[in-house]
## 1
Amino acid sequence: FDTGVLAGKTVYITAGPTREPLDPVRYISNHSSGKMGYALAEAAVDAGARVRLISGPVNLPAPARMERVLVETAEDMLEASLEGIDGCDIFIAAAAVADYRPTAVAEHKIKKGAEEIMELHLVKNPDIVATVAGRPDKPFTVGFAAETRDLVDYARGKLERKNLDLVVANDVSAPGIGFNSNENAVTLVSRDSELSLPQTSKRQLASQLIRHIAERYTQTR
Ligand code: C5P
C-alpha cells in the first residue's frame, strides 16, 4: 500500500514556459526550463501522491509514474489545470506563464514590410494559479515568485493578491540559481511565517519543498 506524507493525495503541478503564437511560425515565450516543476513532480510521486504534471514545451523526458499533460498556451494550461480540479488536494504553480499573448494569431506568416517599427498588440493572459485559488473549494495552493529585489515583500503581496497558501520566493538576481540552472535557493512565505532554504540542487530542494508543503497542507485540513 501507499506510504509517504502525500499518500492518497492528488497533486497538480504546472511547469515550464507557455508559448503564445503570433502567426503559424512565431511565438512569444521565455527561458523557463521546467526543471523545478519536474523535480517537484518527481518528489511528490516519491511522497506517495497521484500527480498530474501540466507542462509547457520543455526539453525534458516524460517522467514515469505520473500523468503528464502537454500544453502550449496559457489558455491551454488553464484548461488543463481546471480539468478534474475538484479532486485536487494540492496545486503547485511552478510554470513561467506568459503574462500577455498577441491579441490575434495571424492566419498566415506575417510578412516583412517597409516599416522600421512594428507594433504588436498584446492582451493579458488569465492568471492560472489565482483562478484555481479563487475557487470556493480550492486546493492548498502554492505559487512561485521570482524577484530581483524585496523578495519577501513581493512574495507576501502575491500571497494576498492571489489568495495563495504558500509562496516559494526565489531571488533571480543571484548568480547560479533560478531560471535554467540546476540549483536554486528559496524562501517559503506564508501568512505568518518565513523560512529560508539554502542553495542546493533543484532535486534536493524539491524534496524539501514537498515535505514543507505536505506539513502545512496537513495543518490546514
Ligand atoms: O504574478 P507572477 O507572474 O509573478 O506570479 C508568479 C506565480 O503565478 C507563479 O506561481 C506562476 O506559475 C503563477 N502564474 C500563473 N498564471 C499566470 C501568471 C503567473 O499561474 N498567468
## 2
Amino acid sequence: MKVDVLIIGAGAAGLMCAIAAGQRGREVLVVDHANKVGKKILMSGGGRCNFTNTGATPANYLSANPHFCKSALARYTPADFIELVEKHRIAYHEKELGQLFCDESSKLIVRMLLDECAQAGVRIETSCGVEKVRKVDGGFTVMTSRGEVHAQSLVVATGGLSIPSMGATGLGYELARQFGHQILPTRAGLVPLTLSGKHQERYADLAGVALPIVQSRVGKRQFRAGMLFTHRGISGPSVLQISSYWQPGDDLRFDLLPDQDAGEWLLAQRQARPAMELKNVLSDVLPKRLAQRLCELWFESRPMRQYRDAELSQIGAQLHDWPMVASGTEGYRTAEVTLGGINTDGLSSSTMQSRYVDGLYFIGEVVDVTGWLGGYNFQWAWASGQAAGQVV
Ligand code: FDA
C-alpha cells in the first residue's frame, strides 16, 4: 500500500497530526497496535480528560532544551484547541488553575478527533503492529502486521513508557536510535513517591489521609496543591508535580501550612487555649491523625501553656519545612508521563522533522518535552502534532 503520510500511534499527538495533514489533502494512514485509539485520552483526567490548560507557557515544561517547545506551543495554543472543542459542542469547565475538563466524558474528545479524521479522509488501522522500518528512495517502507506500507513521510507518535498495560512501548525510541537520534535517559514523571524502611513505617498507617493544600519543594522548585498518604508512600497533585523534579537522594520538603505563619498562629493559640494540648490544637489545621503522628515523631504534645515562645516558633518553622525521605517512585506502572526521550537537538522545533533523515518526524511525549500536571501534556501533544501536520 502507498500513502503520503504514515503515522505510528493513534494517540493525542498522532491523531492531531493526521487531522492537520489530512486537511491539507495528504493521504494519511494512522496505525496503532492497540485495539482502540486514544486509550490514554480515555483514561485521562479521571475519565473527563483535562484536555488543555489556558495558562500553558513554555515554563510549564521540562526538557534538556527549554526553548524547543516554544515555537509549536506559540503556533497552536490552548485557544485553538478550545475552538475545536466548542465547534464540536463539547461542554467543558475550568476546574482550577486554568485546567479545562469535559463536563461529561473524555470519550467526547476521542470522538471529536475521530470525526475530524474522518472528515479529513484519514484512514486508521488499530491492532496493527509495526515490525520493521526502512528508509528507501522517496520515503520509507514500513512492515506492519497487516502488510507493507510505503510512505513519503513517517511520523512517530508512539508516546512514552508510562502505563504499559495501556499499550505503551519503547518503539519510538528504537526507531529514533535506528535513524541516529540520541535518547536522553527516561524516567517516570507525575508519579507517586514511595517511602521505605523507617520512613515508611512512620506514615504507612496514615494511608488515605489527605491535606487539601501543602507546598512541596525540591531545591527552588515548588508546587502548591493537595497531598495524600498512600499505602506505599505519598501522592496527590503536589507530590505528582514535584516528582518530575525529584531524583533519589534529593532533599524533599513540604510546607504543611502554606497559607499562614504557623509560629504566629501557635502563639495566638497558646493565648486563646492555654490548657489545650498541642496535638488537638494542630488538629484544627491538619488532619487529626497526621497532627497526632507529628507530635509522636517530632514534638511532644503538652498543654499549650507549657511551651515557650522559642519552642512554638521552632515547631512553626518545622511545619513549614517538613522533610520527607522518599526512596523512589511507583515507576511507569502508575506514572502519567515519561521524562526524557528523544533529544530535541536532533529535531526542528518548528516542524518536528529529524535533522538527520528527511521525511521523518517525532511528535508528542516520545520527544524530550514533558509538561506539568494540569492539561499541559495534551497541549504539547496537540501543538507538536499540528506543527508536523502542517508540513508532512
Ligand atoms: P499517547 O500515549 O497518547 O499515544 C501513543 C500511541 O502509540 C498509543 O495509542 C499506543 O497504543 C501507540 N503505540 C505505542 N507503541 C506502539 C507500537 N509499538 N506500535 C504501534 N502503536 C504503538 N495529560 C494531560 O494533559 N491531561 C490529563 O488529564 C492527563 N491525564 C493522564 C492520565 C493518565 C492515567 C496518564 C497515563 C496520562 C495522562 N496524561 C494527561 C498524559 C497524556 O495522556 C500524554 O502525555 C499524552 O497522551 C501523550 O500523547 P502521545 O500522542 O504522545 O502519546
## 3
Amino acid sequence: MTELQEQIAKRRTFAIISHPDAGKTTLTEKLLLFGGAIQLAGTVKGRKAARHATSDWMALEKERGISVTSSVMQFEYGGAVVNLLDTPGHEDFSEDTYRTLTAVDSALMVIDVAKGVEERTIKLMEVCRLRDTPILTFINKLDREGHDLIEVLDEIEQILKIQCAPITWPIGMGRRFKGVYDRRTGCTHLFSAQHGGRVIEGEVIKGLDNPRLDEVLGEQADELRAELELVEGASHAFDLDAYLAGRQTPVFFGSAINNFGVRELLDAFVQYAPPPRPRMARQRRVTPDEPAFTGFVFKIQANMDPAHRDRIAFVRVCSGSYQKGMRLRHVRIGKTIQVANAITFQADERRHVEEAWPGDIIGLHNHGTIQIGDTFTEGEDLKYEGIPYFAPELFRRIVLKNPLRMKALHKGVIQLAEEGATQSFRPLKNNDLILGAVGMLQFEVAAYRLRSEYGVEAAVEPVSIKTARWIQCTDPRVLERFKEKCFEYLALDGDDHLVYLAPSLVNLSLAEERWPEVRFLATREL
Ligand code: G4P
C-alpha cells in the first residue's frame, strides 16, 4: 500500500444531521472528548462563547442565541483520522448545511427519543439521499422518558425510508435506564451516572445468560431478554453493504450528556463508515488514490478570527495530497497559485498544515477570487459538480442611507454572495440591488455585516418578488425574444447569470407556458 492509500483508508469525514435541540452539540463535545481533542467536556460551548466575544458579527449570533457558523474538527480515534464537519443548526442557514453535506463521506443522524423524527431531519435526509450518503443513527436522551423504541424505529423506517438495524439496545429508559446491550458482542455496558465530564468505564457483563446480569438488573434482565427477542424479529440484521449504499442505518442508543453509548457509537463509526470514495467531476470520475491533488470549495467563511481579517475557503481534498508550498490550479479562473499557508482546524485551532489527504479539509486564504464550487487541481482542467445553489424564497431591496457608499455596498454584497450567505440580483430595468435568501435571519446578518465590516448603513425593504428561476435557452433567437418580452422581470445574479424574478407563482407558470423552449431552473449547480 502506498502512503496515499494508507492515509485514505484511515480517513472518516462526516457531519451530524439533526433537528435543533436533539443533542448535536453535546454529542460533538463527547466525540471530541474520546478523540482526545479536548480535555474536558464543556469546552465546545466555552469555545463558542470565546468566539462570540472576539468576533463582531458573531455578536449577532449571541444576541439571537443561535449558531450560524460552521467549522471543521479533526481528531484521531482507534487508528482513524476523523474529520467532523459542523453544520449550522438554524434553518435559515440550511443552504450552508446542504453544501457541507456534499463534502462528507457519511453522516450521523441524532434523534431525540422523546421527539422522534423531526422536520429538519427529514429535510437533511433528503439531501443525504441525493448522494446516497451512508447514515449512522444515534437515538439520544435515553435518560429521559421517550416514545416506545420500536415505534421510533418504525417512524424512521416509514418517514425517512431507510431500514433500521439496531446495533445496541438500551436497558430501560428514563429513571430505569441502566445501560446498553451490544448485539454484536453480546456485552452489556452498564451506565453509571458519574459518566459526566470524564471518561469512566462502567461495568461490562459478557453474555446475555450471565447471572451477574440478573444480579444487577433484577427484573429488568428478563425484560431485556424479552425485548431483544422482539427486536430480533421486528428489525433488520446489520448489512454493511446496505449501510454503505444508504439503504440501511445502524442504530445506537444512549445519552450524549451522560456520555453514554457514545463510545460504542464511535467504535462502530470508525469500523464501518466509509473512507473517501470516488467522486464525479464533469469530465470524469476521480478516485481518491490518484496521485494528483484535486479538491473543491464547499464553503467560504468570513472573519472567523478578527485578528486575521480575511475569508477562508474550505476545500475538501478529493484525490492526491496537499503538500505545503505546492502550486495549485484555480480551474475556473485558469490561474496557478502557490499555497504556502493552507490551514486545518484541529479542534478549531488554526494551524498551518504541512500535508493533507483525501477526506481532509484545508482552508485557503481568499482575497476575493475563490467562490463556492471552485475546483483546485495540480493542472488538470477538472470541474467537480453537484454543489447546489437554491432559488431563494425571500427577497429584499437594499436601500442605502448614504448614496456615496454605493461602491462599498456592492463590494460587501458580492462578498456575502460568494460566501453563499445571500444571493444578489440586479434587475435589468433599474439600478436596484435585490438580496435573496432562504431565511429571514440571513437579511439581518447581511445588514449587520454590511455595517460592521464594510461601514455601510443600509436598510432592507420588502419587494414584490415571490421566487426566482435561472434561465437557460439553447436557441439564441428565442432567448433574445424572451429577453425583450420579459425585460421587466429579468435580472442578473452575482455571476451574471440571467434570472427571472417572478412577482407571483401564477406569473411564473404563465411565463413557463408561454415559453416552452426556455428552461426555468429552481437550482443552479455550480
Ligand atoms: P443541538 O446542538 O442539537 O441543538 O442540541 P444540544 O447539544 O445543544 O442539546 C440540546 C439540549 O438537550 C441541551 O439542554 C442539552 O443539555 C440537552 N441534552 C443533550 N443530550 C442529552 C441527553 O442525553 N439527555 C438529556 N436529558 N438532555 C440532553 P439545554 O437545557 O437546552 O441546554 P444546557 O443549558 O443544558 O446547555
